[in-house]
Amino acid sequence: MTDTTTKVREHYRGTDLSDRIRSVLAAITPEGDTLTVAQLAPLDQFHTRGILATTELADAAGLEPSTRVLDLGCGIGGPARYLAATFGCRVTGVDLSPAFIDAASYLTERCGLSDLATFQVGNALDLPFEDAAFDTVFLQHVAMNVDDRSALYAEVRRILMPGGRFAVHDLVLRVGDTVYPVPWARDASTSFLLSEGDTRAALERAGFKAVLWRDDTQAALHWFQAAMTGLPPAGPNLSAVMGPDFPAIVGNLSRNLRENRLGVLSAVLTRD
Questions:
Q1: Which of 38, 100, 149, 161 lies 20 to 30 Å from 233, alpha-carbon distance?
Q2: Cβ contacts of 175 within 8 Å, gap of 6 or more
Q3: Per-residue pLDDT reduced to its tens digit, 123-182
Q4: Is 209 exposed, middle or buried (0-12, 13-18, 19+ CB in 10 A)?
Q5: Cα–Cα distance for residue pair 242/140, rounded to 1 Å
Q6: Helix (H) or strand (E) run with residue 270 in it
Q7: Are strands 68-72 and 90-95 parallel, antiparallel or unpaired?
Q8: Could you tell me which residues are beta bridge partners of residue 121?
Q9: How far apart are CA 209 and CA 162, in angstroms?
Q10: What confidence tier does 211 reach under pLDDT thresholds 50, 70, 90?
């Protein structure tokens, strides 16, 4: 494991994460009760626009019950559970953080979705799957933690079947320096953002062709504005995952978008 990978894993170490999640969920439902994807959405969608972005990307990817899906950088499994529950497809989630994988498995069992969504620790640059093992790969707010973008996209291409879909929801560099800390990094040492143009060039070099390429920055800004002017969501939220300073680091992300330092990209690509 490289020094960078170790630092990224440390950022997402999630000490006692499953216990913290159990504690906050106890406020809304007893431990033995079944949870729903909707109940968990404020807690388990770790990217701008939350479950709205996952919903739009899934619809654009054209999933079916027979689709084999990899959720790469799955976090605590929110998107994977949404895909499994909504489309009836089988989803494999992979994340660098053992704490995230433990929490993802626990929450998926609580939702009664363990037969469709499974999770394992893994490195996005060295995935433990055969060539062409999946029909669709989801990558949401993950690439900015990967220092070798070419290797990342090459590995995604390897495990995708020919003609498979690569669904991307990511942050891109615009003008000026990024203000840290942000949800994915305390400082620039674990942040590897690319511009939109460089992102597209890297994807095309890896053998992908865009069928959807959309700037979602304004939609993200509207989402942040609504979140900041409305009442705080009742029940569990991402502070349970990322700690008490989560509002401050999300505030920095919102600032980076408002000041045009960063943008939000959504894309669906096909593998040649």
A1: 100
A2: 260, 261
A3: 999 999 999 999 999 999 999 999 999 999 999 999 999 999 999 999 999 999 999 999
A4: exposed
A5: 17
A6: strand 262-271
A7: parallel
A8: 95
A9: 12
A10: very high
What is d(CA 101, CA 95) in angstroms, rounded to the nearest whole number? 7
Q: Give φ, ψ of 138 to 5 degrees.
A: -105, 135
In the numeric block, the tokens 């431990």 are attached to: 31
Q: What separation in angstroms does the CA of 91 have from each of 10, 114, 269?
A: 26, 10, 19
Asked if 65 and 36 touch (Cβ cutoff 8 Å), the reply is no
Backbone angles phi, psi at 153, to 5 degrees: -70, -30
Enter the pTM of the model. Answer: 0.94
Contact 125, 147 (CB under 8 A): no
What is d(CA 155, CA 151) in angstroms, rounded to the nearest whole number? Answer: 6
Taking alpha carbons only, the member of 79, 25, 16, 30 closest to residue 237 is 25
Per-residue pLDDT tens for 219-255?
Answer: 999 999 887 776 556 677 888 788 788 889 999 999 9
Q: Which strand (E) or helix (H) includes residue 69?
A: strand 68-72
